[in-house]
Amino acid sequence: MDLLIVILVAFAGWLWFNTPSSTGAASQDGSQPDNLSKLTQGVASIEGYFKSGSLPQRTNNPGNIGTYGGKIASYPDAGQGFEALQVWIQNHAAQNPNWDFYDMFHYYLTGDTLSPGGPGQSPDSYAEYVANYVGVDPTTPVSTVIG
């Protein structure tokens, strides 16, 4: 039964990112949704979203978006959780167009681009994982990757 839920959630995430919507509209070359989708999928992967019973799966929050005080947001469904992650990334990339993956994910994990991270956190490794998932160098500005 758990495997069926994981498959359904993965399919819903795939369907969400492959269905045209008002958020993340495609540029003429079609690059933005693909790269934004890859980026959010990379975050979801490193956060453990695709593991059965994980906290991000139980809360429909693939990015474990929450407060720095440890409270994690919960969404009614996976689509809304992925959309919240997309919006977070898009907003921060737009506000900070020079941020590369290191800056983005240091801030994402700690609330500060210069913080080394807390116990069990490695913002540099996180940034490198997500950049590799997307297929870019982690020193690439996120804003140029998502368009």
Describe the model.
The chain has a single domain (2-22, 32-146), classed as Orthogonal Bundle (Lysozyme). It is globular, with a radius of gyration of 15 Å. Helices cover 56% and strands 0% of the residues. The chain is built from seven helices and no strands. By secondary structure, the protein is mainly α. Helix 2 (31-47) crosses helix 6 and helix 5 packs across helix 6 (123-134).
Tags for this model:
mainly alpha, 147 residues, Lysozyme, globular
What is the strand and helix layout of this fold?
Layout: H1 2-17, H2 31-47, H3 55-58, H4 78-95, H5 101-110, H6 123-134, H7 142-146
Helix pairs in contact: 2-6, 5-6
Please name the CATH topology.
Answer: Lysozyme
Major β-sheet profile? none
Please tell me the overall pLDDT: 81
Task: Note the beta-strand portion.
Answer: under 5%
Produce a short descriptive summary:
56% of the residues lie in helices and 0% in strands.
